Amino acid sequence: MVGATELRTAAEGGERGVRAEYFANPKLEGAPFLAQVETRIEIGSRTRPDLPEQAQSVRWTGYYIPQSAGAHDFFVGSNGDQGGSFACTSTTGSS
After folding, report:
1. Alpha-carbon span 48 to 8, nearest angstrom
2. With contact defined as beta carbons under 8 Å apart, do 65 and 5 qualify?
3. Which candidate, 3, 25, 2, places its Cα nearest to that of 74?
4. The overall pTM is greater than 0.70
5. Could you list the residue range(s) of the whole structural domain that residue 85 is in?
6. Which of 18, 58, 82, 89 is the most buried (most CB within 10 A)?
7. 94 — pLDDT class (breaks 50, 70, 90)
């Protein structure tokens, strides 16, 4: 399993964690009202009482840099009551 510290905000030299952008609409439209680096992804107002009520959607962006070559599996879980989507883009860098 990937720990929170294994995700980075940039492919090279980024901070540990993911970039979180919170929007006041359900479609991630316009500028986010809050953007910050978070060490883990937490969904739902019950898990995030520190967020303003206007938070209707969030986009997390991060990079996973594998420590070895080969296939990697990603698992995303949801309880299904909040919807969502997951996108993964593969890039190959040179060493």
Report:
1. 21
2. no
3. 2
4. yes
5. 1-95
6. 18
7. very low
